[in-house]
Each structure stands twice: as structure tokens, then as C-alpha cells.
Amino acid sequence: MDSLTIRRPDDWHLHLRDGEMLSLVAPESRDFARAIIMPNLVPPVVTGAQAASYRDRIVAAGFAQPLMTLYLTEQTDPDDVVAAHRNGVITAVKLYPAGATTNSASGVRDFDVVRPVLAAMEEAGVPLCIHGEVTDPDIDIFDREAVFLDRVLTPLRAAHPGLKITLEHVTTSDAVDWVRAHDNVGATITVQHLMKSRNDMLAGGMRPHLYCLPILKRDTHKAALRAAATSGEARFFLGTDSAPHPTHAKEAACCAAGCFTAPIALPCLAHVFEEEDALDRLEGFASLHGPAHYGMPVNQETVTLTRTSPYPTPSAVQRGDVSVTLFDPGHPLHWTLS
Ligand SMILES: NC(=O)N[C@@H](CC(=O)O)C(=O)O
Ligand SMILES: [Zn+2]
Ligand SMILES: [Zn+2]
Predict the structure, then answer these.
(1) Ligand 1 atom 2 nearest Cα
(2) Which parts of the sequence carry N6-carboxylysine (predicted)?
(3) ipTM over 0.95
(4) Residue ranges per domain, the chain?
(5) Minimum CA distance residue for ligand 1 atom 9
(6) Are strands 322-325 and 316-319 parallel, antiparallel or unpaired?
(7) 241 assigned to active site
(8) What CATH number has the domain spanning 3-337?
């Protein structure tokens, strides 16, 4: 197959930041119709009013259909969450364990404290998106997702069986199994976790543009993710987790976590699905399963992916003083979008 026409995809996990960076990266998600926008700004987006004004800044910066989220803190007011959802200001609430990832210092330390918010969300049908990693320093970074499933997510699910959950950026076969074993749960998968394993990041030299959280795992986990994404199962769908950082913050002694994939996500995905002999399932993963999980209509427009002779991933996008290096600069791409 040399050409594939699918309904226009959405991105169910996207970081657009704010200010100059927002102006730079908002147009770079042009391949997608809608996107769930992560609230981990500094300071984070914690109230409905803040989400509404952030939405306006995103639209002004050139991304037309942002779906907003609120950052769950131990101070979050259940009534504000429910009202923001009822008024159409937000699509979901995001749970970051405090300290788990970029800009998560205001996240949740004690999961019992947020139980009233979760109960109100369960009652009102507000979805919860979760960064699923424990943060205990004594837990090895490669085990943090699997331990989170046992220690946090399983009890949370049992306490709130009606809560619609999106387990974000799953990276292990443990998470794939957990998602399959629970109803009312969806999972996003990123491009980088489908394409790379920890050897790609660490063997023969450290590659900062492959460093993100949850961290890339071993090959067997990558294989489980590729099987899930190409299985046709509706619980798995695309969330790029495109997470831009200035190039100087990535190419640094302490490298910031996040891969900037938005501009090349679909060509990369087409190649992955082609390698798995599953191009006929790309539309489900990128364009159909996400809307079904969130109870939204699918997009009416289509996009066409065309196979081309390999061309290198562009190295960076730039605006004024800000430069952001793309995920895996120079890596060959085999598809283009028209
Ligand atoms: N994925 C990342 O490595 N980084 C994200 C945060 C997140 O999604 O965990 C970011 O905001 O930079
Ligand atoms: Zn995350
Ligand atoms: Zn993210």
C-alpha cells in the first residue's frame, strides 16, 4: 500500500506550553484536528477560569480545537471541576503524582485527599487522565509504572469503579495487561514508545532527544505496546505526549524529560503500522478509538498519507530565541501527509 486515506486524527495527549513556546509549537500540531491539552504549566492550570483563558491563548496561537484539562491538586474544588465540565470548558482532569514528571510539583502526594474530587467526577462523568508512575526514590525508575498499577491504580479503580480513566503514555506490558483487565479504561500510547527502547537511548552514547517520562523500557515492552496499538482494540489510542523543551534544556547536564514529536508523529506512526503489517488499523488507533473513549464524534475530514523515498526528520523548529529539537533528528521518515 503506497497511500492511505483516513479520518483526520486527534492527539489525546499534547503539551503546548505558553507564551513564546506556545506560539512556536501550536501550529506544529497542524496534522491533528483536536487535542487534549495538558495543564502542567508553571503555575499549573487548576481552575475552570484558568483553563478558559489558556484555551483562548491556544486558539490565538493557531491551534483551533483544544480540549482542555485541569491539573488536580490536593486543593482542587470538586464543584469547580464539575461546573467547568458541565459548561464545556474542560474535557478531563489530569492527575500527576507530585514529582513524577516535568512541572508536577503541585501534584498529588496523598491520594486519599483527592477522593472527594474523584467521587464528584465519577458522579458527573468527568474523565480522569493519569500519569501512572510512583515517585518513591527507592523505586527504580524502570519499575515506577508497574508499581503504580499495584499500589495506586488498582485501589483507586476499586474505590471509583464508575470513573472513566485514561492511563496516559503506557510504556510496559504490565500496563497493557492492566488496561485490558479493567473496564471503562483507555490508554494512550506515544510515538516514541512504539519506536524506541532504552537501548536506543543509552547504548553507544546518551541521546537526550529520546529521554522522556515514563522512561523508555526494554524491547519486550516496546513489542507489547506495538501489539496493543496495532491490535484494533478500542481501548488503545494515540496520545503523542509531544512535550517541547528548548534545545538547550535537552542538551544539558540534567536533560529535561519530553520528546517533541507533533510535527512528525503521523509519518512515524504510518511506518510503525506498516512494519507491523497493520496499516488498515492505523485509522482506528489515530482517529476512531479516542473519540469513542471520550464520547465524541469522529472527525469528518480525511487526511492522506503517502509513502515516499526516505527523508530525514527535520532537526528543529525555531521562533525568535526559542529553538526546539525534534524527536530523533535525522531519523528517516518514509511517509508524508498531504
Ligand atoms: N513526558 C515527558 O517526559 N514530559 C512531559 C510531562 C509528562 O507527560 O509526563 C512534559 O511536560 O515535558
Ligand atoms: Zn506524563
Ligand atoms: Zn505528557
Answers:
(1) 258
(2) 94
(3) yes
(4) 3-337
(5) 101
(6) antiparallel
(7) yes
(8) 3.20.20.140
